[in-house]
Design a protein that fits this description.
Layout (H helix, E strand, L loop, with lengths): L5 E11 L8 E7 L7 H10 L7 H20 L4 E3 L3 E9 L21 E10 L1 H10 E9 L8 H15 L4 H8 L3 H13 L5 E4 L6 E4 L2
Parallel strand pairs: 1-6
Antiparallel strand pairs: 1-2, 3-4, 4-5, 7-8
Helix pairs in contact: 1-2, 5-6
């Protein structure tokens, strides 16, 4: 384990507990993110901390080339395992999934190459990688975030959702949460409620990290 320590800022965020009563909430720890580093920033820090020889530009070029190879291997159908970091793999979806089913949900036709697309990239971190990061982090509470309330009514949120889907075809929870001003937990629950309402015109496809919401055909 590394002897280097970093202060890890976190907040306690109020979240809906979807496994309990409808209005029950609980506080969950969430990382307080102050900055997002791009490849160039990481390369500069690597050179500054003497982890890489040469210039920041040269280090960035190596990183770019490396991950270009990762992308190409994934696109070729391979799973990429980075020792000590984790494993990358692809998830596929069918754009016309709903159109291939009748009113009872029975399949009418099979997916084909034209409608299949890469809908997500899965990352499964190596256990040693998680342990190493955990050993370096020293959590420090910096506040509490109360659950976000949307400035839009439920009907207005549904209309904004439909308009977005008409334009872009699908939406994920994180995008919907920003679109209507809800916390992620409430956004997830509301999207699932829309899917259960036959009048909403909303349904979903995919599973877990690849789950996305679309208009019913």
């Amino acid at each position: 384990m590394s002897s280097i320590k970093f202060t890890l800022p976190y907040v306690l965020q109020e979240m809906n507990n979807i496994h309990e009563e409808k209005e029950k909430t609980e506080l969950k720890p969430r990382v307080k993110v102050y900055d997002t580093l791009n490849t160039e920033s990481v390369a500069r820090k690597a050179v500054l901390h003497r982890r890489c020889n040469g210039s920041a530009a040269a280090t960035k070029a190596v990183i770019d080339d490396f991950f270009q190879e990762v992308k190409e291997q994934l696109a070729a159908g391979n799973t990429v395992k980075l020792d000590g970091i984790g494993t990358f793999s692809l998830s596929l979806s069918d754009r016309k999934r709903e159109a291939r089913r009748d009113e009872d949900g029975n399949a009418l036709s099979k997916p084909n190459a034209v409608s299949i697309y890469v809908s997500g990239i899965n990352f499964n971190p190596d256990k040693s990688f998680l342990k190493e990061v955990d050993s370096m982090a020293e959590p420090e509470r910096v506040g509490t975030t109360l659950q976000q309330k949307s400035p839009f009514s439920a009907n207005e949120r549904l209309q904004k959702l439909r308009k977005y889907l008409e334009q872009y075809g699908y939406i994920k929870v994180a995008v919907y949460a920003v679109l209507v001003g809800l916390g992620r937990s409430k956004a997830t629950k509301e999207l699932n409620d829309f899917c259960q309402d036959p009048e909403s015109g909303i349904t979903w496809e995919g599973k877990r990290s690849t789950k996305q919401y679309i208009l019913k055909k």
